[in-house]
Amino acid sequence: MKKEIDIMRLLKRLFDLDNLIADKEADKKIGFKIDEEVGLLSLKRERASLLKEIPKEFADTYERVKERYTLALAEVKNGFCFGCFQQLPTEMLVRSNEIVTCPNCGRILFWREE
Amino acid sequence: MNLASLLSRDRINLELKSTKKEEVLRDLVYMIKSKTDAELIYSTLLKREELGSTGIGKGIAIPHCRSLAVSKLEIAVGRTLKPINFNAIDKKPVSLFFLIIAPPQDPGNQYLLTLGKIVQICRELSKGNLINKPQTPDEFISLINEIEKKLIKKR
Questions:
Q1: What is the C-alpha separation between B145 and A25, in angstroms, rounded?
Q2: A9 and B71: CB-CB below 8 Å?
Q3: How many other CB atoms are found less than 10 A from the CB of residue B42?
Q4: Which CATH number do you get for residue B10?
Q5: Residue A53 contacts B, CB cutoff 8 Å
Q6: Residues of B acting as catalytic residues
Q7: CB A42 within 8 A of CB B62
């Protein structure tokens, strides 16, 4: 079984990859050349294989939250979820390696590395 | 928004010894982050290059992406001692690299505005044949400042 710290690492890679795909139109407007066929296909393949590596319950949560809010991960800062800006319950403020979601919006929470 | 103000001396290396695309990207990323954060950015940048080279031609590339690993816009500049193959759109080797990493949430669209501005400045750099002119990070920042001022006057 994968450790949660490794699952989180995969979720972060998935998140960055999704933002990359989402930014392609803006990149084109600025003048960058985007390979809509081979390049995009390769990224989509990478996305599918990353999803397979993530245990189903976390992959499902990620996809569900992404569907709703686009950005499925949110940072915990000063005791707040930086996705919905709601204060988190005290018991959640101890930084842990477990994967937790915001009780208010459901985004997957992460703590910035020191 | 002033680009020169986003540049810092310790994030400009005009003597990169790397000779391969991957090495240059790694060098640039490690100027702004380390450990797992750097590796996350590096892997996202490699993916971005798969989507299409960020080599905009005439010896300049602007590798960029958003990443969870940063909490604000971060820029690093590198120039390799010898131009390297970066699969640029004009197929010519690249020696000047602007790395831009932005956080996923970007109020005010600072990321795209900065990216657009860097593209504009890079065009001026290549037009004036200025890529190899600055010899120190301070000279580089002054040159960018000058170009920005000229661009503002042109408007």
A1: 29
A2: no
A3: 19
A4: 3.40.930.10
A5: no
A6: 64
A7: no
Predicted confidence pLDDT, tens digits, chain B (155 residues): 788 899 999 999 999 999 999 999 999 999 999 999 999 999 999 999 999 999 999 999 999 999 999 999 999 999 999 999 999 999 999 999 999 999 998 877 889 999 999 999 999 999 999 999 999 999 999 999 999 999 988 77
Element (H, E) at B75: strand B74-84
DSSP code for B52: S
Taken as a whole, chain B contains a residue count of 155
Contact residues on chain A for B71, CB-CB shorter than 8 A: 75, 112
Kindly list the residues from chain A whose CB atom is less than 8 angstroms away from the CB atom of residue B122. Answer: none
Inspect the interface and report whether the beta carbons of B71 and A75 lie closer than 8 Å.
Answer: yes
DSSP3 helix / strand / coil % (chain A, rounded to 5): 50, 10, 40
3-state secondary structure A85-104: CCECCHHHCCCCCCCCECCC
Q: What is the pLDDT of residues A42-57, one digit of tens each?
A: 999 999 999 999 999 9
Question: Domain containing B46: what range?
Answer: 3-154
User: Which domains are delineated in chain A?
Assistant: 4-110 (1.10.287.1490)
Q: CA–CA separation, B150 vs B68, rounded Å?
A: 35
CB contact under 8 A, B51 and A39: yes
Structurally, chain B folds into a number of domains equal to: 1
The encoded tokens of residue A106 equal 């459901």
Per-residue pLDDT reduced to its tens digit, A5-64: 899 999 999 999 999 999 999 999 999 999 999 999 999 999 999 999 999 999 999 999
Q: Is A19 on the interface with B (CB under 8 A)?
A: yes
